[in-house]
Amino acid sequence: MKKRVLFPVALVALLLLGQQVMELPVKPILAQSQAPVVTIAMKNQNEEVKEVPIEEPFNATISHLDVGKYVIELPKELDWVTPEKEITGITYSEKTRQLTLEQTSEEAITFSLKANSVGKYQVKVISTVEKQKSVPFEVNAIEKNEATEEVQNEELTTFAEAPQMLSLNRLDDLTGWGDISSNSFGSWIFQQKSEVFSSTLLPKGVLLTSLNPGGGRNNKSTAPTLEEQIRAFRVDVPAIQYHSRDESKTNTIAWYVPGTVSGYLGKNPTVNGGESVTMHGETDFKSLGLVVAVNNDINTLQEISVGPKTDIGYPSDESKVSNVDINTFKVYKKTEDIGRKFAYDVTIDTYKFHVTVAYIPNLETDVVNVIYTYTNIGDSTIPGLMTGFNYTPEFKTAKITNDLGSIGTKTAGTIKYMGKNKGIFGTATAGGHRAEIYPNYREDGPDSWAAWSESFRSRDGNRDITKFMKGFKNPTDLYSVGDERDAIAPNTQIKEDTSTNTNATISMKWNPKDLAVGESISNSWAYATEAVSSLPKLHLEEGDAYYTTGDTGGVIKGSWRNYEAGTSTNTIKYSIDGGAYQNYPVSYNSLEEVGLAQDFEIPISLVAPGDHTVRVYLSSNKGVNTSTYSKIFRFKAPKPKFDSTISVKTDGEERTSLSPGEDFTFDLAMNMATQYSQLIDSTIRVPLDSTMIDGSKLKDLSITKQDGTKGTISFNAALNQLEAQFPTSFVAGETLNLHFAGQVIDSEDLVDQQLTFEATIKGTSGDVVKENFELPAAEKPVKQIDIVPALSTVTVNFLDGDRQPIVGYEPYELIGKINDHYDLMSEIDVIWIIEEIEDEGYDLTNFPTNERGLFERGGTVVDYIFNGNINFTKFASTVGFGELTINSNTQVYKPKLIDDGKGPNNNLFFEISDTRNKADRKPWEIKASVVTELTSSKHKLPGNFIFRTKDKNEIVLNKSEEVIYKQSDTVSQLTKVSFDSNLEEGLQLKVDPGIYADDYTGAISYTLENAP
């Protein structure tokens, strides 16, 4: 690649430097027996490297390769870089991703590649001749910020060709800089960009003029002195010029192509005259240039420019800026470098400091860094030193009229905001040129800046220092913020029209700072140029890219631009992980927008959780494609969401209310609900209301994950809150439980109040990208507990003499407030129960002493004790023998019907209940006796009842009681005795011959009594 540098020197003579040709080094031819070698070096550098940063072109040089044909298959992580000039013997197929080498000699062959992903990639140079061995080599690609280079570039955050800034030593370091104050200090920087494209406006290419400190005009017939030169220049106010170049010409006129447009930003000195006699240029009377204030006092604001303050032409001593010591003025340059440093001393009140103004261009990108350094050279601290810069970047364009470079009428262009606080730019009315000013290009850019337009009268004499703060929100406050950030919308045009004496102006401001003796501070900004290109442009947003879960978890962001086809549709094409390209159409809404950068955002769906490579390029309506750019999207885990519950229990039962003095347990269960989320160094806080919970009585504190991992937990008495730490990772699907036991303060004053439990959770979330996390207020787990009066229960038991519940009578409960009175003898239900039990043959032996009293915490038990009896509870009350036949012989008959209350049967039965105390129980027996003989209306049948016992003894019943059943078991409370007539048991009737036929009835008595 060739570079042409034209360097007119403002004070001596016009010097034309010869062409500088940069060629790739070629290794000497070695003996054929040497094995092929592949070396890797960054593009435009010679030193071999072991690692290459991704997205940076590098050269692969193959030496000692035998003559023949070779094929190189590139892995998908390595991209072919199209050379600026065709390389003989190398062809590349985008479809097959193959390089074909036609090696016709033993000279080294070099080509360029670029890695799009981090990793180590194996590449083979494969010979098509069967017997020749392949040549393997490895490419180790690393992240950009891991690369170590002598010159570390910073990428500009603007659209213009993504220019790069050269890193510098600190600005007060003059190592390598030479003092040229005695012979030359003006400079023009012309840069012929190698990638200038043809267009209707610039048919021959374009020259971009990147630096020219302003100058003054001297109409004296004799050469000016050095002091006169210094006073005439505004070294702090640069100018930019744009000219087309006719590459077929080699003289100065080559820079001025008839019919093309030239552009001017700031004042433009002329160069077509004898500089030994007359100084050329127009002094910029509008820009304030450098300004400072001390003591945080806006009333001390003043400019510190080298150069005339009032008249055009050679200034008098009175017209110079009085606070600058002109005798300290110095100019520095580096050997074979076109950058400049201007230095001088300034005195403000009693404070003295040294100023350097440095212009450091990057010829590869047409970016010029403007850097100011202030060093305290006095004997005391400079308090509240505010530094600033004011510039009126008057933008004009004009057509070149003839081959002599005559310039036609200059027409005012337009100035607009870039938006997003990037800066401002000027464009030619007819298009074709653009000048860009970037306040925040470097880390030491202004704390605030503002741009606006106002009326100026050209060459109006003294500049007005009060205009410096005009564009800020509060012009009387040195800390005020500029409108671009807060009020003026992006892309708002700032009017610039010389016909009405209106110009745009920009002020940059660095907030006040104390400057100690010997201490230095640096300020900077940058400007760049851009020519209209007929090719489409695509720029991806800087910085790392991330995606999350969901259908549109990732977004491709960037900007595009195209002058080519007006409002026709262009297409942004993108591919994910080497898949098919997808289309995203973009177009300008109107012709006025054509050529302006347009932001775009393309939502994409990526599969979590791995990294994904997205490749993007812009295809114009005419099928012209930009380069393909790669972006690695790294998975950004979603912020955690929890399914959290708070449980408050007493005796294992969930509660929504508690009473004063009541014990309870608290459990907070937090389940991580979002997939891929994790939380590290979790801190959980549960505030406790000290008026309702006694922190000193907390116990059983714990925080545990479901796998048993424990954290730490304690009560912070000063803040009245539980504080738990869980340092290990807590991921999706896991549950964390915080537990403690407590007690409500025993005070009836709390009744009808509400106790609220809630938990806050903080920690560090994420995996690749770690962020501070705090559970949103809307997602905090909350549990509200009503404080209700404390109740107590009086439990009334009805017991037999053995202190066992009487069958059929459940305990009776009476509920009331603690310390209220109760009286069981006033409770009608209790009275009814006692009476029912007594009706069943029980005797109440005593009245409990606590059947009257107060409801007490923990409850009260009242026992009513009854002594029992032994008695029949069921028995057959009626026995029938039916109609009997009187025979000539004595007959014995069984009963026909016995009524047991469930329907007649012929079995005699008894049910005996024995509720006596166990100690009082004795064996019992059943006796039977005849109360009334069988009697009809006229006759009697004495001695006719017979009873057969269980052991088949026959007893003739009469008036005396006879034992028919004995029971020796005293354990059972209920005994059933049944005499089965089918087994010849129970009551029978004997009928003798000769009795009178009639209806007979009688009565038998059964007696239950304790056995002797």
Can you give me a brief rundown of this structure?
The chain is mostly beta strands and 1012 residues long.
Q: Topology, please?
A:
Layout: E1 2-3, E2 6-8, E3 14-16, E4 20-21, E5 37-42, E6 52-53, E7 58-63, E8 68-73, E9 78-80, E10 90-93, E11 98-103, E12 109-115, E13 119-127, E14 135-142, E15 154-155, E16 164-165, E17 177-179, E18 189-192, E19 206-211, E20 213-214, H1 226-232, E21 234-238, E22 240-244, E23 261-265, E24 289-293, E25 302-303, E26 324-334, E27 340-348, E28 351-362, E29 367-376, E30 382-391, E31 395-399, E32 411-412, E33 414-417, E34 424-427, E35 433-438, E36 448-455, H2 483-486, E37 493-494, E38 502-515, E39 520-531, E40 537-540, E41 545-547, E42 554-561, E43 570-576, E44 582-586, E45 598-604, E46 612-619, E47 629-635, E48 642-650, E49 653-654, E50 657-658, E51 663-672, E52 678-687, E53 699-705, E54 712-716, E55 721-726, E56 730-731, E57 735-743, E58 754-758, E59 760-765, E60 771-774, E61 782-787, E62 791-800, E63 812-817, E64 821-823, H3 828-839, E65 843-844, E66 852-854, E67 860-867, E68 870-875, E69 879-880, E70 891-893, E71 897-899, E72 904-905, E73 908-914, E74 924-935, E75 940-941, E76 945-948, E77 954-956, ...
Parallel strand pairs: 6-14, 41-47, 50-61, 62-67
Antiparallel strand pairs: 1-4, 2-3, 5-7, 7-12, 8-11, 8-13, 9-12, 10-11, 13-14, 15-16, 17-26, 18-19, 19-22, 20-21, 22-23, 23-31, 24-25, 24-30, 26-27, 27-28, 28-29, 29-39, 30-38, 31-32, 33-34, 33-37, 34-35, 35-39, 36-38, 40-42, 42-45, 43-44, 43-46, 46-47, 48-49, 48-51, 51-57, 52-55, 52-56, 52-59, ...
